[in-house]
Design goal:
By secondary structure, the chain is mainly alpha-helical. The chain contains 22 helices and 2 strands. The protein has helices spanning about 10-45, 50-90, 90-120, 120-130, 135-145, 150-165, 170-175, 175-190, 195-220, 235-265, 270-305, 310-340, 340-350, 355-370, 370-385, 390-415, 420-440, 450-475, 480, 485-510, 515-525, 530-540, and strands spanning about 5, 545. The chain is globular, with a radius of gyration of 23 Å.
C-alpha cells in the first residue's frame, strides 16, 4: 500500500490536472454521444421502423450484451483496482505480467464464447426473438456471422479503456467509440439497395477493430509490455474470478430483463424491437452526457479512497455526488417527460421515419423517462459498490428486479403492448436504485440520508415543480413552433422551453438556498472559460488524497 497523506487542499497543479481530466472526458463524452445519436438518426432515416432494423438490432444484441456483461460491467471495474495495486509496488515487470495474464484469459474466454455463438446463431436468435418472421431470423443470422467475430476486438478495446482510465489517460479512451459510430454513418449514407444492411454490418465490425487499434499505442506508452503467457492459476486471475463472477452474475440478471423485453417486443409487431431500441437511445442521452463523465473520473477516486481505508471521506464523496445527481436530474426528468414528443421529432423524424413512428417512439420514451433519475443515481452508487469490492449486492438487487420485471412486463405488455413494456422498464430502474441506496446507507454506512437530505429533497422537488409549469406554458404558447413542419422551428421552441425551465428552476432553488445551486451555476459559468473547471466544481470533495 502506498504511503498517503491527508491534505485539506490539493496543490494547484494537481487540481488543474484533475479539472482538465474531467473536462476532457466531458467534452469527448459529448462528442461520442453526438456521434452515437448521428448513427441512430442515420439508421432511422434510411431504414425507419422496419423488419430490417429488427434484424440488425437482433444481431447486435448478443455482442452488446457480451460487452456490457463481461467487459464493461464485470472485468473493467475489477481491472482498475488490480492494476493500481500492482502499480503502487513500482514493479513494471510484474505489472506487465499481470496485465498480460488478464488479457490472455479474456481472449481465451471470448474466443470460446464467440465460436459457440456463431455455431448456434440461428438457434439462439429464434429463441430470443420468437416473434420474428422466418425471413427476419435468416437476415439476423447472416448479420450475426458478420458482426459477432469482431466482438473480440471490441472487448479488447474495452479492456484497454479500463487500463487507460485507471492510469488517468482518459482522452483517447473516451474518444475511441466515435470511430465505430462514424464508420456506420458513412456506410449507411453510401449504401443502397437490398444489400445496404450488409454493408452497415461490415462497417459495424470494422468500427470495433478501429477502436482497438486506436488504443494500442497509448497503452504501450504506459510502459506495460504484453507477453503471450497463459497462467490460469495466477493470483490476478483468481482475484478476477472472485470479484468478477458476482459482477457478471449481476449483469447477466440485469440484462436478462432486457432480453425478456426484446423477446416480448418481437411478438407484438414488426418494428417493435427497433422502436424500443430508438427510445432507449433517447433515454440514455441524459446519463451519457451528464453522469457518465462524472462516473468515469470519480470511480478511480472512490477506488483509491476505499483502498486506503478512508471510508469517512468516501462517504462524503458519494453523498455529495448523490445530491448533485438528484439536483440535476429531478427537474431534467420532469422536463423530458413533458417534452418527449418534440424531442423525438427533432432527433428522429427524417427520411423513412415519419410522424406515426415519432408518436409511438415518444410514448415509449416518455415511460422510460420515469427511470432517468433512478438510473443516474444507480450509475454513481454502483461505482461505490465496485470500489468497496461489494459485488454481491448488485447481483442480489438485479435478481429481485428480474423477478419483479418478469411478472410486471408480462402482464403490462399483454394488456398495453409496447407502452406496458416501457412502463415496466421505468419501474424496474426505480426498484434497483432504491435497493442500492438502502444497502449503501444501512449496511455500509456510506450514504448520508438524514434530516438535511430530506430538507434538500423537498426543496429540490418544490423548485422542480416550476419546470412543469414552464413546460405546459411553452407547449400552449409555442405550439405552432413545436408542431411546425421544420426542424429549425421545433428546435427553437424546445430550446426556449429548456432555457426558461432551467432559469426558473435555478432561480427558485437559489431563493430556497439549496447549496447545490451555487455549485451548478458556477459550473455553468465556468464552462465558458474552462470546461474542466466546470465539472471540477461538481466532483471536487475535500479533503482530498495525495500520494
Amino acid at each position: 500500500m502506498p504511503n498517503c497523506t491527508l491534505e485539506v487542499n490539493e496543490p494547484p497543479a494537481t487540481s488543474l490536472r484533475k479539472a482538465r481530466a474531467v473536462g476532457v472526458v466531458t467534452l469527448l463524452t459529448v462528442v461520442v454521444s453526438a456521434c452515437g445519436y448521428l448513427r441512430e438518426a442515420t439508421l432511422a432515416a434510411c431504414f425507419g421502423i422496419s423488419a430490417v432494423m429488427d434484424a440488425y438490432f437482433g444481431a447486435m444484441f448478443i455482442p452488446i450484451i457480451l460487452y456490457t456483461v463481461l467487459i464493461s460491467g464485470a472485468l473493467s471495474p475489477v481491472f482498475i483496482p488490480i492494476l493500481l495495486e500492482q502499480d503502487s509496488k513500482g514493479d513494471r515487470a510484474q505489472l506487465s505480467e499481470t496485465f498480460s495474464v488478464l488479457i490472455n484469459t479474456v481472449v481465451l474466454l471470448l474466443t470460446i464464447i464467440i465460436g459457440i455463438g456463431i455455431l448456434t446463431a440461428h438457434t439462439w436468435l429464434r429463441l430470443l426473438f420468437a416473434g420474428y418472421s422466418a425471413e427476419t431470423i435468416q437476415l439476423a443470422t447472416r448479420l450475426t456471422y458478420i458482426m459477432l467475430p469482431a466482438m473480440l476486438f471490441l472487448a479488447l478495446a474495452g479492456v484497454l479503456t479500463a487500463v487507460l482510465n485507471g492510469f488517468n489517460r482518459f482522452a483517447l479512451a473516451s474518444f475511441a467509440p466515435c470511430l465505430g459510430s462514424l464508420a456506420i454513418v458513412v456506410a449507411t449514407l453510401f449504401s443502397r439497395g437490398n444489400g445496404a444492411i450488409y454493408i452497415v454490418a461490415f462497417a459495424t465490425a470494422a468500427g470495433f477493430v478501429l477502436q482497438f487499434l486506436l488504443l494500442l499505442p497509448t497503452t504501450r506508452s504506459l510502459g506495460i509490455q504484453y507477453r503471450p503467457s497463459f497462467n490460469l492459476r495466477h493470483a490476478a486471475n483468481r482475484r478476477l474470478l472472485r470479484l468478477g463472477a458476482p459482477l457478471c452474475g449481476y449483469l447477466m440478471l440485469a440484462n436478462a430483463s432486457v432480453l425478456l423485453e426484446r423477446n416480448l417486443a418481437s411478438s407484438l409487431s414488426a418494428g417493435a424491437v427497433a422502436t424500443i431500441s430508438y427510445a432507449m437511445r433517447l433515454f440514455a442521452v441524459p446519463a451519457t452526457f451528464l453522469v457518465a463523465p462524472l462516473a468515469v473520473v470519480v470511480y478511480p477516486q472512490f477506488a483509491r479512497q476505499a483502498l486506503w481505508g478512508k471510508l469517512d471521506h468516501l462517504k462524503k464523496h458519494v453523498s455529495d455526488m448523490f445530491r448533485v445527481v438528484v439536483f440535476i436530474f429531478l427537474p431534467l426528468s420532469i422536463w423530458i417527460v413533458l417534452n418527449a414528443l418534440p424531442l423525438t421529432r427533432i432527433l428522429y423524424e427524417h427520411g423513412q421515419f415519419g410522424l406515426q413512428d415519432s408518436l409511438i417512439t415518444a410514448r415509449v420514451f416518455t415511460l422510460y423517462s420515469i427511470g432517468i433519475l433512478p438510473n443516474a443515481i444507480g450509475i454513481i452508487v454502483l461505482r461505490c459498490f465496485y470500489a468497496i469490492q461489494d459485488t454481491v449486492t448488485p447481483m442480489l438487487a438485479e435478481a429481485i428486479d428480474l423477478v419483479f420485471y418478469f411478472f410486471i412486463a408480462s402482464l403490462l405488455s399483454k394488456h398495453y403492448g409496447l407502452v406496458g413494456l416501457a412502463l415496466a422498464r421505468g419501474m424496474s430502474f426505480i426498484l434497483v436504485s432504491g435497493i442500492f441506496i438502502t444497502v449503501l446507507h444501512k449496511k455500509h454506512g456510506l450514504m448520508e440520508i438524514d434530516r438535511n437530505f430530506v430538507i434538500f429533497a423537498l426543496k429540490t422537488t418544490l423548485a422542480s415543480s416550476s419546470v412543469m409549469a414552464v413546460s405546459f406554458a411553452c407547449a400552449h404558447l409555442l405550439h405552432q413552433l413545436v408542431d411546425g413542419g421544420s426542424i429549425f422551428s421545433r428546435l427553437i421552441g424546445i430550446s426556449v422551453s429548456g432555457f426558461l425551465s432551467t432559469a426558473l428552476f435555478l432561480a427558485i432553488a437559489w431563493l430556497l438556498r439549496i447549496p447545490e445551486t451555487t455549485r451548478v451555476v458556477e459550473a455553468l459559468f465556468a464552462m465558458r472559460r474552462e470546461r474542466g473547471a466546470a465539472l471540477e466544481r461538481l466532483t471536487d470533495v475535500e479533503p482530498q488524497f495525495n500520494s
